[in-house]
Design goal:
This protein has 3 helices and 8 strands. By secondary structure, it is an alpha+beta fold. The chain has 2 domains: 49 residues, no CATH class; 102 residues, no CATH class. The strands form 2 sheets. Strands 4, 5, 6, 7 and 8 form a 5-stranded antiparallel β-sheet that branches. Helix 2 packs parallel to helix 3. The longest helix has 26 residues. The radius of gyration is 21 Å and the shape is extended.
């Protein structure tokens, strides 16, 4: 069993306000805004007291630029499935024993994830690209590159 550590995470934001209470209220509004992304954190390991500043700006920008690419390709060439690109695998959101959640359909703004238990599909769910882990986004990018390549080749064959 993997041993986990406890951390205290502080969200860092600069706010101009007339009082500490007003600053806290403004920070709360920003934090609760679904379009707001908290990107700078101070993380303190509880056992040692060691603090680390973490800025996720580069990670988020990289992820969102990949998502923009995915959406651009699908907007141009249409939605597709892992079967259509003859993928060797489906990107996995999670795999635990005989239970897995796999991404198999790709749309303009969402993917469809299928939940399998003992290789039987028990349900499906549409998930926004923005809500997927970067590793899953990377796997999707590979499939999207294959889709785009296949579509370009098909277009060239049709022109001839």
């Amino acid at each position: 069993m993997k041993h986990t550590k406890q951390y205290l995470v502080k969200w860092v934001i600069d706010i101009e306000a007339n009082s500490p209470e007003e600053a806290a209220k403004l920070a709360l509004e920003i934090q609760r805004d679904e379009n707001s992304e908290a990107l700078a954190f101070t993380v303190k390991e509880q056992a040692t007291g060691e603090e680390t500043d973490v800025n996720l700006l580069d990670t988020i920008l990289t992820k969102f630029s990949k998502i923009d690419y995915i959406k651009k390709v699908i907007s141009k060439w249409g939605s597709f499935t892992t079967a259509e690109v003859e993928a060797d695998y489906s990107p996995a959101i999670s795999v635990i024993g005989d239970h897995s959640v796999l991404v198999e359909s790709f749309w303009n703004y969402t993917v469809t994830a299928y939940e399998y238990v003992d290789s039987i599909c028990v349900c499906e769910e549409d998930i926004r690209y923005e809500d997927l882990d970067e590793e899953v986004i990377n796997d999707i990018c590979t499939l999207v590159e294959n889709w785009e390549s296949e579509q370009i080749q098909t277009e060239k064959r049709c022109e001839n």
